[in-house]
Design goal:
Layout (H helix, E strand, L loop, with lengths): L1 E3 L8 E8 L8 H11 L4 E9 L14 E8 L12 H19 L9 H5 L2 H11 L13 H14 L12 E4 L7 H10 L3 E3 L5 H9 L6 H21 L2 E2 L4 H9 L30 E5 L8 H14 L4 E5 L7 H13 L6 E3 L7 H5 L3 E4 L8 H8 L3 E5 L4 H5 L4 E3 L4 H12 L2 H18 L2 H22 L10 H18 L35
Parallel strand pairs: 2-3, 2-5, 3-4, 5-6, 6-7, 8-9, 8-11, 9-10, 11-12, 12-13
Antiparallel strand pairs: 1-4
Helix pairs in contact: 2-4, 2-8, 4-5, 5-8, 6-18, 7-8, 10-11, 10-15, 13-16, 17-18
């Protein structure tokens, strides 16, 4: 689905946002970040290439005029146009695919419309079966079956569908997460020399590893798909002109994946302190509040177990949970509700859904909780801090960087530690007040929206200038692909040498685009929901 919106301002710097399961078709932290970036730069011309589930997802954000076009790339919609390869084309693609699959399983041609039809054919399954039964490969010990081969090949075909969409031809390609959304950006770099900017809020590869621990596939299938994500992450880190993680924790994964440390710059999320003013009086009843999407990655089960321990000491305590349940997450919410009931606290744990004003969610608690097992630099945390509420958070991603000394941080998946921290704050009103004031001051000094927007505007302009220096006649016919590859490396060098913008002091299984629809073309077996975004 293509949505045309505003017109591109003449001579404006052009940026194509590459998203997966987030903006502009879904709510959540990454979508909030995208909306902030776009609205904060009316002088930049934006397009969006959004990897979605079926392609029928509605646009749920008000789109500003500087966004000229939105292109949806459905992972589980109709297959891309194309024809099965034959003759020399088939032999060449079979050889390339065999090398590709070997790389997926052994750590030690979408341009012509051939790849997707090839991956839907028998030859691709035969290649995979042959490769993973080679002597010496660990996956061989799991005795892969024909069903495994069909499942893995189907998942790969869907994962590679973004290669069939037209890549950006100019400006800057900005992937707002790693993974599948990056594929059009890598293509744009290869064909047209468009510099690739990567922003990682969470670590996409890490979250795939977490998600596939419980995915309903046998090990041979997981080996292929996780191998694909590993190679994609490594290629993205190598090719990006600049990587802007949302916290320093992500740098460790990026450097381990092959990123040049000199091309990594931490840029924290930011909020407008005026939009998140001090929350005002606390509730009279001791209350813990939480805000976010109801998702396994948020680990509400640990929060509910911790609350049960809190209530042993404070029988009047309440736990209020604010946020929507995304499509496919209904079973998880029901599991959490059943856990609260089973522990005897159904009367005190309330799922209150989305609220019109998120500040109401933070004001509802004496203490704001964050229980996630994976995060980037969570908006809900810095929003609650801006509202002057004391917080208890799990020590994941950039949480400790955000909180500093202005809140309590506990290990993830530890109900006893979380309960002890919550009781500590609930029992000391003066300490809550001091922490809340320190938290708001920390946001004002270090994590404002203006700092974030100004930093990315500088990055966009610098990358655009670097590309213009390499391609002075940007509107001229494309040069040979070999020249493009040489120029791509010069973008990285030029940006690393000349950048001066300082940084301030989140389809597929499992993916943010959800499970495939039932019926013909769906992947064999169920697909796990996203842990990203």
């Amino acid at each position: 689905m293509h949505v045309l919106h505003g017109s591109r301002p003449p001579h404006a710097t052009h940026v194509t946002l590459l998203t997966e399961g987030t903006y502009p078709h879904s709510h959540g932290g990454v979508s909030v970040w995208c909306d902030q970036i776009v609205r904060g730069m009316p002088d930049i011309a934006f397009e969006v290439v959004a990897v979605t589930g079926t392609g029928r997802e509605p646009v749920v954000w008000d789109i500003p005029a500087q966004v000229s076009r939105i292109r949806s790339v459905p992972m589980w919609g109709p297959a891309p146009d194309g024809r099965p390869p034959t003759g020399r084309q088939e032999r060449r693609l079979v050889g390339a695919y065999e090398r590709f699959v070997t790389a997926l399983l052994d750590p030690c041609a979408a341009r012509d419309g051939l790849l997707s039809p090839f991956l839907r054919g028998d030859r691709a399954v035969s290649v995979l079966t042959s490769v993973w039964n080679r002597p010496g490969l660990m996956v061989r010990e799991a005795r892969p079956t024909l069903h495994d081969a069909l499942t893995a090949t189907t998942l790969l075909e869907h994962a590679l569908r973004p290669l069939a969409t037209a890549p950006p031809r100019s400006g800057v390609a900005h992937a707002v997460s790693g993974g599948i959304a990056v594929l059009p950006g890598l293509t744009a770099l290869e064909r047209h020399g468009v510099p690739l900017l990567l922003t990682e809020h969470g670590v996409y590869l890490r979250e795939r590893y977490l998600g596939y621990r419980t995915a309903p596939y046998r090990w041979p299938v997981k080996a292929v798909v996780l191998g694909f994500f590993r190679l994609l992450a490594e290629e993205t880190y190598r090719k990006a002109a600049l990587i802007t993680p949302g916290n320093r924790y992500n740098r460790l994964w990026e450097e381990q994946g092959g990123a040049d440390p000199g091309l990594i710059r931490t840029v924290y999320n930011g909020v407008d302190p005026a939009a998140f003013p001090p929350a005002g009086p606390e509730p009279d009843v001791p209350t813990l509040s939480w805000a976010g999407r109801v998702d396994p990655i948020k680990d509400l089960e640990t929060l509910i177990r911790a609350f049960a321990l809190v209530r042993e000491r404070l029988p009047a305590a309440r736990l209020r949970l604010f946020g929507g349940t995304p499509r496919g997450g209904e079973a998880y919410r029901q599991r959490c509700e059943a856990l609260a009931a089973g522990l005897g606290h159904a009367d005190a744990v309330t799922f209150e859904g989305r609220v019109d004003d998120i500040t109401d969610a933070y004001a509802a608690g004496n203490v704001v909780m964050l229980s996630s097992i994976s995060e980037g630099f969570p908006f809900t945390l810095i929003e609650a801090m801006s509202c002057g509420r004391a917080t208890v958070s799990t020590d994941v991603g950039g949480v400790r960087e955000a909180v500093g000394d202005s809140g309590l941080v506990v290990p993830p998946r530890d109900p006893a530690a979380m309960a002890a921290a919550a009781l500590e704050l609930l029992g000391d009103q003066e300490r809550r007040r001091r922490m809340g004031e320190a938290a708001r001051l920390r946001v004002i000094e270090q994590f404002t929206l203006r700092q974030t927007v100004d930093t990315f505007r500088s990055i966009y302009l610098e990358l655009s200038r670097a590309r213009t220096a390499v391609h002075p006649a940007e509107s001229a016919p494309a040069a040979a692909s070999g020249t493009k590859r040489r120029h791509a490396g010069r973008h990285r060098a030029a940006f690393a040498d000349t950048s001066t913008a300082p940084g301030p002091s989140a389809a597929f299984a499992p993916t943010a685009v959800g499970a495939p629809p039932p019926g013909p073309g769906a992947a064999p077996g169920p697909v796990v929901r996203s842990v990203a975004g």
